[in-house]
Amino acid sequence: MPRDIPVGNGRLLVCFDQEYRIRDLFFPHVGQENHVSGDFCRFGVWVDGFFRWVGPEWRRDLLYAPDTMVTQVNLFHDELGLLLTCRDAVDFHENIYLREVVVENLRPAARDIRLFFAQSFNISGNRVGDTAAFDPETGGIVHYKGSRYFLAGGSVNGDTAFAQFAVGQKKVNGKEGTFRDAEDGFLSGNTIAQGSVDSVAALHLAVPGNGRASAYYWLAAGESWHEVRRLDGVVRGKTPQTLLQRTADYWQLWVRKEMPRLDLLPAKVADLYHRSLLVVQSQLDWQGGVLAGNDSDVIQFNRDTYSYVWPRDGALAANALDMAGYPIPAQRFFEFCGAAIEREGYFLHKYNPDGTLASSWHPWLNNGQSQLPIQEDETALVVWALWNHFVLYRDIEFIKPLYRPLIKNAADFMCRYRDQETGLPSPSYDLWEERRGILSFTTGAVFGGLTAASLFCSVFGEEEKAGEYQKAAAEIRDAASKHLWREELGRFCRMLSREADGELRVDAVCDSSLWGLFAFGLYEPDDPR
Prior knowledge:
The protein has 11 helices and 26 strands. By secondary structure, the protein is of the alpha+beta class. The model has no long low-confidence stretch (mean pLDDT about 95).
């Protein structure tokens, strides 16, 4: 994920590049509807007749404050004689992005310093039919299209209005963008534009020699003009300082859980553990989706992104969250899967954060033959992870509505989807979505999934069904020992694939996917094979 210091709350996610420009802004789902995609929201400074956008000529330290999802950014410019210290956050409860800017004047003379914030939205992923308008009621700038609204506001010393503003068109009729209007330190004051639009707003600071002054900027995200005005009122009423502090406090409480104990770990390792949890949390959607990666850079290569939910990746992440003591995000993921699973009992390639089927390159027809375009390990590992969740938390009320539509449905499919000759799982795509066959990793995952389903059935008093699933799992283990273990190699193979003449071809490559043979219980890790 080539994005630094992401901040979010499960509905609003803001991502920066290494030059401290907002490059991705997702709402109302983490990973779905990128409203900046392909553009930049810039931040610039004017002082003593000179203007500079934050970029390569600045010394930039993009960090987080300890144990929280609030940034700690330092920006130094020797020529301008300025040090800017910024804090960014998305409020943990409201859909508001906030930035505090503390400006330190490194010169002995008092100076007039102007901060410029450029908004360049491509609402809902394109720049057709957007509107940007000054809102006199709030003193902010509203960008909107359809049911997506974004209000930019700011304050200095409690004065919640921009000192200057301008809106206009970008990338059309030879116009580069309104952000260029800022570079002389003055803005035109144009109040509305439609089509492909951007906007710029300024906050003015009077900073004493060798002194400091602070300013605040925010973006409210909503589905109506009324909603973003309400959120703007929340910022002004509670103050941006209060919202930043309450968000820092919330995430510190969230990450400093009692389990597992970290007091025996070196401080740097404990800090890395906490930071990992917070970064993972930033990529979780409120509706349960676990996103693979949220950035728009990859669009230029294949016109697609990684802002999708792969059930396998989500299951492994949910299992890790459960083990770390965070059952609620794991539960949301399992509920997401319960709604997304196909009625035949399998998961398709990947899903959008709202649960709809996502783009795919797996064909339904290959070499004239129909096939299921699936990675079967995705189906199996959701059931495996759900059993691990139940073992840890014993939340039978949570499991009950998932028992038939998810657990038994997936297990019945895994029992059916078997190669008739070998008894192994039928061909599907591998972890890297590069090859299709009877895979060692998938075999291990299916064994783990069927074993988990059998244990669930025993808990629910369906011993006959439990036996059916356990029998299928045992047959798969025997088949793996017979066909995937290769005496000529002295180890397991990666994959078997069936040739046009029906013969099985052995893929002897040894790679990390063989971990799946013992990770989910098919074999013990100390099995001499």
